[in-house]
Structure formats: C-alpha cells, structure tokens
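Sat 14:20. Reprocessing the chain from the morning session after the first attempt stalled halfway. Input below, unchanged.
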Amino acid sequence: MLKSDSRTMSYFSSLSNAEWEILEPLLVEILPQKKRTRPTNWSQRELLDGIFYQLKNGCNWQDLPKDLPPYSTVYWHYKQWREAGAIASATVRYLGVNFTATIEPEVQKCVVDPHPLPKVAGYKYRLYHCL
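Finished this time. Tokens:
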C-alpha cells in the first residue's frame, strides 16, 4: 500500500490532479526502468512533489517537510533520474526548454589603474574602466 493516502498537506510546488493526469503517462516513456528491488513505499507523484518542493524553495534536501517522502529517498530518485537524462529529456521533449545548451558568457575587458585616487573628500577607490 502506498503512503499517499496519509498525505494531508499540499504545497504550491505540488502537482495538481490535472497536471498529474498529463504527466503520469509520460513518465513511462521518460523514466529509466527500475531494477528489481523491493517495492517502493512512495508513489512517483509524491517523489516528484518532493523534488519540485526542493527545486522551488531552494532548501537543503534534509529540510523537506515530514509529510513528503524522506529526503534520502527523494534525493536518490532525483539523482538516478538526472544521471539517466530523464529530467533533461523531459524538459526538452515536453517543455521545449534545453538546459544543457551552452551559453557563451559575455566577456568584458577591464583595466585597473594601479594608482590610487588622491585623498579628496575621503575617497580611496581605484579607477576601473571596462571596455
């Protein structure tokens, strides 16, 4: 029996029922096949809610609320799915967003004047000139 029946809280990062109905059939195509181990106590929806909570709030994995799956379980699944390319595949395939594309940073050249400014009105800064 999955523990999803005991879940009472909902968060802004949680999937709505409509979102889950769209996402659930897609997970079969995206997620890697799980090795034959003991059955999980948590549904994929609960695991995704834990991942989305952490990504939205930027908290440490250990700070996940207690009504979500244990942080070690959520992080383990996140790591497995990320390493298998499932998360990148989902964002490219279904959202049209490619996070793996490289972006060339804009480079500026700066020249630093090694001479300090005279002590006028308390200023002690050096001159910087960016090209």
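Helices lie at 17-30, 44-57, 71-83, 86-95.
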